[in-house]
Amino acid sequence: MAIEQDILIAAEPVQTQVVQLANTNSSYLDFSTSVNNIQINKTKPQWHNYFLCGLKGIQEHFGLNNPTGMNCLLDGTIPPSSGLSSSSALVCCAGLVTLRANGKTLSKVELAEICTKSERYIGTEGGGMDQSISFLAEEGTAKLIEFNPLRATDVRLPSGAAFVIANSCVEMNKAATSHYNIRVMECRLATKLLSKSKGLDWKKMLRLHDVQTKLGVSLEEMLTIVEEVLHPEPYSTEEICKCLGISLEELHSQILSQNIQDVSTFKLYQRAKHVYSEAARVLEFQKICSKAPANALQLLGELMNQSHISCREMYECSCPELDRLVDICLQFGAIGSRLTGAGWGGCTVSMVPTDKLSMFLKNVKKSYYQTDGQRLAGENNSLFATKPGRGALVFVEA
């Protein structure tokens, strides 16, 4: 679901072919550049580069030779580097602003797909979930996002509980570290080994979902196949080459992305097992919401708890602070709690009974934030209840 917090850009089209960016937060420096010479620095992911990703994506989609210049002022209430997709929200907002300023139109699905691709200009191998919900979200309902083709299905959440976001105050910038991209590559390598073992055209297979689709089996059956084909011990690059029948040079030039060329071992079993089990939990979550049994909240909470355990142990994208925060949230009444976003820092999301919300917030503040000076300083923006919010909008001056 999309949270209620957002990124806002006030934009003014101008006659000059220059984009000037300013931020209401003085810690983010002003920036300007020619719209005909977009340069995105992957080695130093500063805030304006995310705007340029969205700008460049729209320019390239339409082949704009003389794009409109803009003066833009950015504001927002999404904590940065917190796992709440502030960077993707900025890319999407920039794409929408550029689209409007140049008098072009696209569907929400087309915008989501373009912004997913364009965020990769900064070096993050994202899958598209954040961008999709940024455009396809509707107020009051969660969404089941599916791809190929991109589509969103309403998921009506049961009453009686609120979702609470808690920031661990450990910042993690996906584009500035290799953790995220290594996980993407481990999933891709697992895809290729699973495909090869089942006689599929492994060179064309990129996603674990592709293997399931080609084989026409259930997620539970895929988990069995993972157990049969992959081993829990890390794979060396040499072993991967042997399994695929390729040279080390071919592995590096044709499969591994540029920013993880130095990685020598990969955990394929754990990553594949997490992805397939997490997908099964998502579908089970939707099923419970649809059937709405009397114990729906307890069942959904258990799925959230299982998800965090898998993130921590199989995908290894948690951190001690997130684990501590999840434990505190469960201790003080959350039915379920898990990390959200890419991980390695950022936020947790907890499902809390509405009648316990006030006391829950008070106790979590006391136990996690008020015991640490740095956390205490950002306490007001670090812990809040939220509801499913709406997707991106354009407000036009009357």
Helical fraction equals 40-55%
Order of helices and strands: EEEHEHHHEEEHHHEHHEHHHEEHHE
What ranges have pLDDT less than 50 throughout 5 or more consecutive residues? Answer: none
Top-tier CATH class of the domain at 7-153: Alpha Beta
Structural class: alpha+beta
Oligomer kind: single chain
The biggest sheet amounts to: 4 strands, mixed
Shape, principal axes of CA atoms: globular
The radius of gyration over CA amounts to 22 Å
Family: Belongs to the GHMP kinase family. GalK subfamily.
Organism: Pipra filicauda (Wire-tailed manakin)
Protein name: N-acetylgalactosamine kinase isoform X4
Domain GHMP kinase C-terminal: 294-357
Note down, in words, how this protein is organized.
This is N-acetylgalactosamine kinase isoform X4. Keywords: ATP-binding, Kinase, Nucleotide-binding, Transferase. GO terms for molecular function: ATP binding; galactokinase activity. The radius of gyration is 22 Å and the shape is globular. The chain has a domain at 7-153: Ribosomal Protein S5, domain 2, CATH 3.30.230.10. Strands 1-4-2-3 form a four-stranded mixed sheet, covered by helices on one side. The longest helix is centred in the C-terminal third of the chain and has 24 residues, at 268-291. Helices cover 45% and strands 16% of the residues. α5 packs parallel to α6 (208-215), α5 (179-197) crosses α10 (268-291) and α7 packs antiparallel against α10. β2 (18-23) and β3 (31-34) form a beta hairpin. The chain is an alpha+beta fold. It has 14 helices and twelve strands.
